[in-house]
Amino acid sequence: MARGKTFIISGPSGVGKSTVLKNLFEGREDLYFSISATTREPREGETDGVHYHFISVERFQELIEADAFLEYAEYVGNFYGTPKKYVDKAMDDGKDVILDIEVQGALQVSNKRPDTIRIFIAPPSWDELERRLRCRGTDSEEKIQKRLVRAKSELRTADVYDYFVINDTVDRAVREINAIMLAEHCKPAERMKILSE
Amino acid sequence: MARGKTFIISGPSGVGKSTVLKNLFEGREDLYFSISATTREPREGETDGVHYHFISVERFQELIEADAFLEYAEYVGNFYGTPKKYVDKAMDDGKDVILDIEVQGALQVSNKRPDTIRIFIAPPSWDELERRLRCRGTDSEEKIQKRLVRAKSELRTADVYDYFVINDTVDRAVREINAIMLAEHCKPAERMKILSE
User: Fold this and answer.
1) Closest partner residue to B166 among A161, A163, A191, by Cβ?
2) Which residue of A31, A48, A144, B144 shows the fewest CB atoms closer than 10 Å?
């Protein structure tokens, strides 16, 4: 059995990443979605080990010192991180792992694990991203403009990514991600090993 | 419209490359199969421009001097080559191009066009390749052993290839080639251009 690989999936707010990921995971027992650890309190309806691994600040600090995270960050007073443990277990079991993280986290993971594959989900156009942000109806006009500026700046720093998936339709985006995952398993390092056995 | 890309497909004798290519091309108007030029005489049933571009030795030499081939070779007294012209036209039309060439030709093309993607079709195992060569019933035992030695030596020099497709079933091989082609179109160079338009 070939070992699983880790795929980072990033994308700007409003691009439709959650829907793409939901569709990608449908009926896929061979994929593992990495669950973050966090120090924030569970919200109503959130379950430990399902939505997050809820841990104390002390425990989080211990894990940082033990180099147990692939990446971590502080966000409005709480820590969030990707524990290595579950990622490694899934890959050992032959599962591909999806990390739903943003550009800064992707850079941290890339430094620790250069063999991680980085996929950026981009909008078909900036106009379309603006339209989608507006359609959600959750943000003020000011916030929408801020999100657009941030998305454009993210894309400029996104040349570290290996692939760009254009989310014009969810089906197309999922098809492209699946193609990327399969193609990555056709790389020589993995295949030569099979043939030399 | 994105420009097409060129994909080299190589593989040892007996691996089943022709069947894979036949299935790959079924119903695909967006793919172009590169037709070689040759100085050998047409055989019964062969049509100029379909099976080969049949040209004279003088013309072939002119084309070599004009750097009009992506690769060429001499084989039992005849020349065979891949004309740049048709490949470039197809890519300009947005079609992906398949070059069915062997390892030496792949190296020549790679030197001229480093952006060409190289796919090697490998057998699931050496035992299976031997079984397939035997099943064809066309070769003597001595020739089968020679082909196996050559296949193993080709694979050793094949680390220049970008992808290895294992032909255990034709469907799987075709699915992997399609995934590779789609994934290659998700590379940043092409996609960033779309988003900066």
Assistant:
1) A191
2) A48
Residue B113 has pLDDT above 80, yes or no: yes
Fold classification of A6-196 is: Rossmann fold (3.40.50)
Query: What's the pLDDT at B80?
Result: 96
Sheet of strand B117-122, all strands in order from the earlier edge strand to the far edge: B31-33, B96-100, B6-10, B117-122, B163-166
Q: Would you call B192 and A162 a contact, using CB atoms and an 8 Å cutoff?
A: no
CB within 8 Å of B185: residues ≥ 6 apart: B2, B5
Q: Are B14 and B8 in contact (CB under 8 A)?
A: no
Contact B180 A186 (CB under 8 A): yes
The nearest alpha carbon in chain B to A179 belongs to B179
For residue B161, give the nearest of A126, A165, A188 by CB distance: A188
User: Nearest CB to B180: which of A159, A175, A183?
Assistant: A183
What pLDDT is stored for residue A134 in this prediction?
87
How far apart are alpha carbons A26 and A5 in whole angstroms? 19
To the nearest 10°, the Cα dihedral for A135, A136, A140, A144? -80
What is the rounded CA–CA span in Å between residue A123 and residue B194? 10
Instruction: Output the CA torsion A9→A12→A16→A20 (10° steps).
Output: -10
Distance CA B195, CA B13 (A): 43
Q: Please report, for chain A, the start and end positions of each structural domain, with discontinuous segments joined by +.
A: 6-196
Distance CA B189, CA B179 (A): 18
Q: What single letter denotes the amino acid at residue B46?
A: E
Q: State the pTM of this model.
A: 0.91
Name residues of chain A where pLDDT drops below 50.
none
Both tokens of A4, joined, read 């699983």
B20 vs A190, higher pLDDT: B20
Residue B78 has pLDDT above 90, yes or no: yes
Helices (H), B40-187: 57-65, 84-92, 103-112, 126-136, 141-156, 170-184
Q: Smallest Cα–Cα separation from B159: which of A187, A197, A116?
A: A187
User: Average pLDDT, stretch B101-125?
Assistant: 93
Question: Does ipTM exceed 0.85?
Answer: yes
